[in-house]
Amino acid sequence: MITAQSAFVASEKRQHMQSAQFQGRVTSKSGSNATIRVVSLSTHDRQFGCRAWSGTYRMTHRAGGWRIARADIHPRSCSR
C-alpha cells in the first residue's frame, strides 16, 4: 500500500504540501478491494498549516499495486 501513500504525498506536494505522515490499518479485505482506517495522518502545507485527518480509504488492487479508489477523509486543525 506504499504506492497509495506515495501517490498521496506526490499529489499534496503539487498543492504546496511540505510534509505528510501516515499510518493506517486494514479493516477489511475482499479480493482486490480493501478498506484502510486512518490511524494517524498529519499534513503541513502553506495554505492551511498543520492538519490532522481522520476517516478511511477504499483501496483497489490494479496493475500490480494498490490504488486509492475513494478517499473518505476529513481534516481538522492540529491545534484542536
Secondary structure tally, helices: 1
Total domains, how many?
1
Instruction: Please name the CATH topology.
Output: Nuclear Transport Factor 2, Chain: A
Please give the order of strands in the largest beta sheet.
Answer: 1-2-3-4
Supply the CATH architecture: Roll
Helix content: 10-25%
Structural class: alpha+beta
What is the helix/strand order?
Answer: HEEEE
Number of strands: 4
Distance between the termini: 29 Å
What is the CATH level 1 assignment?
A: Alpha Beta
* Cα-atom radius of gyration: 13 Å
How much is the average pLDDT?
86
Q: Topology of this structure?
A:
Layout: H1 2-14, E1 17-30, E2 33-45, E3 49-62, E4 65-77
Antiparallel strand pairs: 1-2, 2-3, 3-4
Tell me about this structure:
This protein is α+β, with helices and mostly antiparallel strands and 80 residues long. The chain has one domain (2-77): Nuclear Transport Factor 2, Chain: A (Roll), CATH 3.10.450. The chain has one helix at 2-14, and strands at residues 17-30, 33-45, 49-62, 65-77. A four-stranded antiparallel sheet has the order 1-2-3-4, covered by helices on one side. The mean pLDDT is 86.
